[in-house]
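Q: Start with the shorter request: fold the first protein.
A: Done. Sequence, then structure:
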Amino acid sequence: LASNLNKAEVIDPAGKRRIVGIFKGELIYRRSDISVALTAKKWRYQGRKVREAELSKPAKTVKARKKSEPKTFRALTSYGVSDTSEQKVDDESYVEDDGMDHIFGRWQTEEWSPDPVGPNDEIPVNEYKNIELALINPGLVHLEVRGIAKVAKKLGLPYAPCLLGFEGHGGNRTPTIRGIVVHEHNADLLRCAYTEWESQAVEQEHAQRRKAIYGRWKRLIAGMLTKERLDRQYGGEENK
């Protein structure tokens, strides 16, 4: 029954011609002809894109979930040596700011994949200046190594933070940013540079630790010598 459909469920157009019965004046459809409709953006996560001609004809319009601004990630104006370009999503242009979501059925979509990014192309990012792992473009590589962004910045290589997803529920969802995205031809160079930087950092840490240990021993020995000198100078007179 159409009245029993969930918020995001729709009846496939072909299924509307396969009526199996009537119940209390309401048409009954096959369960196999019922599918879940998604927003244009969510279809991209499924490797599909809403066709241009269908953007103005959503299968359904539903009340949008209230969105909260990310609290833990603050975007920089640029990363690396060049400004990253904001990724344009054509099918997101048809979104009315009326508190409603326009959702589309699978029959309104076609297969889609992100555009390839060449060695000289800028890294396409979203409005928050990061790139989603689920939508990463061919020609880009995700490097999930702690501290590797510092190395990329020192080398002057363009990069963007990588958004893995969101944690939490409801309005308390926070983005999970981990690792960076770089051009594929820079990945090996960056890995080697990171290995060298990490070894130097370990050596510096050991050197600082040795220096701190030597300093503590020096203070301890100086204190013992001072105590011994004071005992020689004043200890004898007190005994008398």
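Q: Next, the second protein, separately.
A: Sequence, then structure:
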Amino acid sequence: MQPQQDPFALTNPRQHLDSFFAVAQDDMIQQPARKKARATGSVTAHPADNSMQLLGATLMGAFKNSALFNPEAATIPVASTAASQAAALSDSQAVGSDSAIAKRYPGVAPGARPLVLVVEDTDVSASLLCMHLRKLNCTSHRAENGEVAMEMLRSAPHPGMYSLILMDLRMPVMDGFEATTIIKGSNASNIPVVALTGETSDEHRRKCEEIGFDDYKTKPLKRPQLKELLKKFVPGYQGPH
């Protein structure tokens, strides 16, 4: 016994669609005359009167034979893949001079909340920074000194977990100079580190540059300054909505 053929298994969906639209077009032209004829009882039916049923059957057959219904038969045109890759590359370069920063620092996915490590031994200063970060659509962790910060960085699930480090310089146990020297010597993801200090001497600034701090700011750090740091060092940061 031969298997029963599926009436919806169209081998050439486009041909059937073309046939349907030809019938449907004829239906639109002839419909007024047929309606009048049916009203007088001289015509009982016409092949195009079932156009909606034909549409359902035809589209179902086309869908069942398409790549959407049968993923194994789907193919991705090379041109489309190349175009997508070119578009992605174009998007990554659209930021102009910021593209260098995007390559240098880990950043975040566009619109994601950066996680900032605040290394500060003074509770009041740490709380103020964390409050500003929260207002700027960021999350934060606080370390009381450089030694605690080093432990938090070592235990992070992945090297790019923190998008920015705000580092106080004068702290007990391990100060910001020593901690940043270690971070910059072993920082595979190159997390940006910003020095926070109450000192403004040229010698102090020069020492920070030699160690490798990415920026140098005097305390107290105000919210607009912090926002500029986030925009500068965290690619993908979009600020509060």
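Q: Describe the second briefly.
A: The radius of gyration is 33 Å. Residues 13-40 form the longest helix (28 residues).
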